[in-house]
């Protein structure tokens, strides 16, 4: 055992009930003999119901422990109604034969305790989480992660006991509450928690790891920064400056054909003048 469990093996919450049942059983036994048998059965039942044994506590800092004994009835992504955020929900149903003391699932500081009056429908049903009498403990772990664990009354359970309050520090496995005669506990963990149990699994309070919760929240990917608006004109300026000579070269290329045509016409005039001279000379010769 990693540390002393400072509570009796029979929970104090049950001492008046067990004592009363024992006294009544003895009295009826002396008066009515075997007619006291039902009272002895009730006393034995109460004795086992209010047991609160010490348990070995896993020390992995990422482990989120089961706060109670019971059976897993829900493992799903849901909305944490107390924080209004998406969460991993794990629910444990406790029958009358399970240990009913609640213990802290992690090293944490209680930030808020919320009590809601409600009905007493079967705690095995999903609607028990929102309709039944319940008491929610909102806490922040030693590493800064936010978790919520909720005590939910059941069909038989009519009394939720919570011994913690806002500002209190709880160590993993530390006892903080008790529910009498059948109930349920809902756990709401950050969505990056990894469930280590499945629906139908039987869990042992404190000893079973319900989920592994990273000590730090995952970092959200930062969006790429938009390009500065001045960058685009600057990048487009170079092609513009390079295009300028091309646009300026056009008149030069257009002027070249004009000079060529002019030179060709001058040469043709010279040829025609020479031909005229030759023709005139021929005519003079013929006249002679």
Tell me briefly what this model is.
The chain is an alpha+beta fold. The protein is 32% helix and 27% strand.
Structural write-up:
By secondary structure, the chain is α+β, with helices and mostly antiparallel strands. It has four helices and 14 strands. A hairpin with a 4-residue loop joins strand 2 and strand 3. The protein is rod-shaped. The chain starts with 14 loop residues before the first helix and ends with a helix.
Question: Secondary-structure element order, as H and E?
Answer: HHEEEEEHEEEEEEEEEH
Helix content: 25-40%
Q: What is the general shape?
A: rod-shaped
**Mind summarizing the main beta sheet?**
8 strands, antiparallel
State the strand order across the main sheet.
9-5-6-7-11-3-2-13
| Total count of helical runs of at least 4 residues | 4
Average of pLDDT: 80
List keywords for this structure.
288 residues, 8-stranded antiparallel β-sheet, alpha+beta
Task: Describe the secondary structure blueprint for this structure.
Elements: H1 15-32, H2 37-49, E1 63-65, E2 70-80, E3 85-94, E4 101-103, E5 108-116, H3 128-131, E6 134-141, E7 146-153, E8 160-162, E9 169-170, E10 175-179, E11 183-189, E12 194-195, E13 202-203, E14 209-212, H4 231-287
Antiparallel strand pairs: 1-14, 2-3, 2-13, 3-11, 4-10, 5-6, 5-9, 6-7, 7-11, 8-10, 12-14
């Amino acid at each position: 055992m990693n540390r002393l469990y400072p509570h009796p093996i029979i929970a104090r919450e049950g001492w008046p009930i067990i004592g009363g049942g024992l006294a009544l059983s003895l009295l009826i036994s002396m008066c009515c003999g075997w007619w006291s048998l039902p009272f002895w059965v009730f006393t034995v039942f109460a004795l086992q119901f209010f047991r609160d044994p010490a348990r070995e506590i896993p020390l992995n800092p990422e482990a989120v422990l089961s706060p109670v004994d019971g059976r897993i009835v829900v493992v799903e992504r849901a909305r944490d109604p107390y924080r209004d955020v998406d969460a991993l929900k794990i629910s444990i149903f406790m029958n009358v034969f399970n240990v009913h003391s609640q213990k802290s699932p992690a090293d944490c500081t209680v930030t808020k305790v919320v009590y809601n009056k409600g009905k007493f429908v079967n705690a095995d049903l999903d609607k028990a989480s929102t309709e039944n009498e319940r008491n929610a403990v909102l806490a922040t772990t030693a590493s800064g992660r936010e978790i919520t664990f909720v005590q939910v009354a059941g069909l038989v359970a009519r009394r939720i006991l919570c011994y913690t309050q806002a500002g209190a520090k709880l160590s993993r496995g530390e006892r903080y509450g008790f529910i009498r005669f059948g109930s349920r506990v809902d756990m709401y963990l950050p969505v990056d928690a990894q469930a280590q149990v499945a629906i139908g699994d039987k869990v042992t309070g404190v000893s079973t790891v319900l989920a592994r919760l990273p000590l730090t929240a995952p970092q959200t990917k930062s969006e790429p920064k938009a390009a500065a608006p001045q960058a685009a004109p600057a990048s487009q300026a170079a092609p513009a400056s390079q295009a300028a000579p091309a646009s300026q070269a056009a008149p030069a290329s257009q002027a070249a054909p004009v000079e060529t045509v002019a030179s060709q016409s001058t040469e043709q005039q010279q040829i025609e003048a020479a031909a005229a001279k030759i023709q005139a000379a021929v005519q003079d010769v013929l006249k002679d």
